[in-house]
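Summary for the steering committee. One of the milestones for this cycle was to obtain a three-dimensional model of the protein with glutamine bound, which we needed before selecting residues for the alanine scan. The sequence and ligand used are listed below.
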Amino acid sequence: MSGTDARGLAKDGVRALRDRVARGDLSAAEVVESHLSRIAAVEPKVGAFLHVDADGARAAAAAIDRDRSAGRPLGPLAGVPVAVKDILCTRGAATTCGSRILKGFIPPYDATCVARLRSAGAVVVGKTNMDEFAMGSSTENSAWQVTRNPWDATRVPGGSSGGSAAAVAADEVPASLGTDTGGSIRQPAALCGVVGMKPTYGRVSRYGVVAFASSLDQVGPLANSVADAAEILQVIAGRDGRDATSSRVPVPDFRAALGRGAQGLRLGVPREYFPAGLDAEVNAAVRRALAEAGRLGAQIEEISLPHSEYAIPTYYIVATAEASSNLARYDGVRYGHRDDAARDLAALYVRTRSGGFGAEVKRRIMLGTYVLSSGYYDAYYRKAQQVRTLIRRDFDAVFEKVDAIVTPTSPTPAFRFGEKVDDPLAMYLADIYTVTADLAGIPGISVPCGETKDKLPIGLQILGPHFDESTILRVAQASESAA
Ligand code: GLN
């Protein structure tokens, strides 16, 4: 039987596994066992998972196999193992969001995206490592463990969804879920050589997603191919009455966009995203991908997004302001960690929060509280909201002329552990090409487009208009088949 070698079945991908289970070539139980052994074999080196739910996965697989033998209809992901970022609430299974302050928290419900995966027949195998509260670009801010880049164990997997990206890159699962607030799906996807997509804000419900910055947070898939990412998106997308910001815009059949090539599409290349100092190998790989898209019949045009230079400061005002408010709920009373030595209520708050949050989270809470404080609100927070509108208008204007925008995903390939972790500003710049899409609410995808001479993957980012995931999936797939 093919696919049962030491690398396991994950590399076969979402669609092949689903089809083989549906045909009865493989049982869901065999699929899950293959993945659990692959996970056991590589986790000591990779460290992508905070928690592997072997029993839960086996029980879910057994239920699929029973449905199949009874002739009951199978869901579109029946028998497909999926890993989910630890920011997503999973019923009865620990959810820490990478933080000590949520140690011991067991959600009584599933996030809507997790519930939708399960009802489509996906087998949730575990929770992946992440930067604490999704704040970071390397997963080094996890309170729990290090996740290594499967391409080079001396390097970071990117972040904050580093565990979800590494799990796919190491063939531990064929797909995973991450969240993107400023780039945390696309950037780790680029650094780990996998596909990662941030849908339009509102496309996927945020119900049960631990809140970081509510006007930016969005859930999306990571997988080994664009078509597989589309399969996952299809299942998790759509209106949810439990999230008032989830959109009523109808969900199209994303698969219909695939296989149509790049012929006739107008692609914009923003000059602000290719500064003189851009990493030479990243620049060369993205230019090659653009030339290839041109050969495939796309029209390539230089465009301008003039407010790009304000994106990082704007993002770090908006995101920290929202975080300072969202994280006020961790007071030692309701969730997870509580400092037992406190003698009165004020001490309970102070001691719980001092001991429960890591340095980056504290930095963000202080910065966010500052920009919202009465004397500075107008100077920082209001100003940032105004600039956010200008950034969004830059995109609106450009999408009058082009169908999609093509850029590098990350200014550099995967960096080494420790290289940026003590310099927050250097770390913040890792997201210089991704935060704009979150600020504007538009969809973006990262797809591998080559390797450096040291064999590190490079990602190509494609951005599209609101609710037009179909076009960016189409462009990404054309470039994936050309790479
Ligand atoms: N690196 C960015 C930050 O630290 C983005 C994080 C994210 O998208 N969750 O805020």
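Key point for the committee: The two ends are 29 Å apart (CA to CA).
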